[in-house]
Amino acid sequence: MKPIVINQAWNGAEKCQLCPIRDLVLFADLKQDDFHLLHLPINEFELEAGAILYEQKDKIDFVYTIRSGLVKLVRYLPNGSYRIIRLLRQGDLAGIEALNGSAYLHHAIAIQNTSVCRIPVKNVEYLNNKTGHLYTQLTARWQKVQSDADIWLADLTMGSSKYRVAKLLLYLANDEVDEAFFLPTREDIGALLAITPETASRIIAEFKRAGLLTTKKNVAKINDSTLELIQSL
Amino acid sequence: MKPIVINQAWNGAEKCQLCPIRDLVLFADLKQDDFHLLHLPINEFELEAGAILYEQKDKIDFVYTIRSGLVKLVRYLPNGSYRIIRLLRQGDLAGIEALNGSAYLHHAIAIQNTSVCRIPVKNVEYLNNKTGHLYTQLTARWQKVQSDADIWLADLTMGSSKYRVAKLLLYLANDEVDEAFFLPTREDIGALLAITPETASRIIAEFKRAGLLTTKKNVAKINDSTLELIQSL
DNA sequence: CGGATCGTTGACAGGTATCAATGCTGGTGG
DNA sequence: CCACCAGCATTGATACCTGTCAACGATCCG
């Protein structure tokens, strides 16, 4: 089993204000005084690839800000296979559904080395009662869940397998050409796109042969021919 | 073009309190005094099948509570076809993304006769500033968007076409056997499940021949054999 | 070195898209 | 009133795509 390493724990007032990615995260709009309202400790974790962040049955006391890395939200199916519902990246909030007291809707599993901040739900509730400064960011995050889900449905669940794989590569590469990005296993690509790992492998291999994609272990780059490919379906 | 009929307009304090489906809608938790905070009029509309509730480019001044009927959220594709991202039913809130000032993410089109209440975003913002009574319902609705999207992804975008159509029928029938429900056109079923209208038609016709489904115009019923079918894939 | 895991590739069957033709139904206008 | 038309549903023939089952290669690790 992949270990989870706890880097540090602190009271919010001390370090969250200095967070280098604070403008990306939930606390972006907080004022200096607000940080004194964070009574419960916020911990930073390092997850290795394969580590479980939370499971559907877990107690729902925390939400997690992704500082870096990549987390998959997974739903297991009766037949033992699984479907990846969404991917979370830097600045995303994992377990946001915990904020209204419902159970986690998925399992959250790191698929590459990932760093997260674990935020007690009670901190968020308390802040929300005492200041209005959290509301905008919270709503923005809920909306991002919706727009991510919509993009998923519109881009990654329709059309041919080749089209979907190409779209996924663009998504993983943040639409940037010649930038290195993490390429998931063929099984995960299959679970992301609702295709079999074999089909995923065939298409990735074909892209590599065609020079659209270069890989080195888990790291891949696309070039701008990939963009053209998608136009042609 | 299908007409939109405005039934009535009123100030919230007068009628929203008496709304027969109030426990289902956004204002479920409001107290008597809160209704006096609704300054802008709330209108009730009747939409005929095919009528457009809003379009992606529209000004985003309103959200809409679905009182009855069925609304599809649609994204058009470059090639002129479309994909249905989600269906909204009684109690759902259409255009919720308007609440944080972003543009509508889809087109919203009635697919059967539908009744909605049009609520100015400013009313919601004002209520939200003055009372905390709206917050729970708002969060619950955001979360419903997420869980609906997840169900969509897990149930309606994977597996064989036959499986997906069966799942959709169950969804449309609210998992209830022998209850009449609205059956969309084959084109809409295709856009819902990412299959072609021909495939949708073939499967529906096959279900009818097998006695799993009975139809009369747009109205259909399933029986409990349909449930068993899904188990068998 | 051997075993485990993952990726690649092949052969084949079955499913789905595509293109095309034909029914069916409701509405419109002569 | 009836004929026609438009839109939708159904069905057929065919080609292509993808899933399935299976074998083999590559890499990592103990």
Walk me through the structure.
2 copies of one chain form a homodimer. Chain A has 233 residues and is α+β, with helices and mostly antiparallel strands. Chain A folds into 2 domains: 8-147, Sandwich (Jelly Rolls), CATH 2.60.120; 157-232, Arc Repressor Mutant, subunit A (Orthogonal Bundle). Chain A contains 7 helices and 12 strands. A 5-stranded antiparallel sheet of chain A has the order 1-2-9-4-7. In chain A, a hairpin with a 5-residue loop joins strand 5 and strand 6. Chain A is elongated and about 55 Å long. The termini of chain A are far apart. The A-B interface holds A 75, 77, 83, 85, 96-97, 99-100, 102, 105-106, 128-129, 132, 135-136, 139-140, 142-143, 145-147, 149-150, 152-154, 157-159, 194 and B 75, 77, 83, 85-86, 96-97, 99-100, 102, 105-106, 128-129, 132, 135-136, 139-140, 142-143, 145-147, 149-150, 152-154, 157-158, 194. Chain A binds a DNA duplex (30 and 30 nucleotides) through helix 6.
Tell me the distance between the termini of chain A: 41 Å
Element-level helix/strand string of chain A? EHEEEEEEEEHHHEHHEEH
Q: What gross morphology of chain A would you assign? A: elongated
Question: Which CATH class of the largest domain in chain A is shown?
Answer: Mainly Beta
- Proportion of residues in helical segments of chain A: 25-40%
The count of strands of chain A amounts to 12
> What is the fourth-level CATH superfamily of the largest domain in chain A?
Jelly Rolls
Look up the CATH topology of the largest domain in chain A: Jelly Rolls
Low-confidence stretches of chain A: none
* Proportion of strand residues of chain A: 25-35%
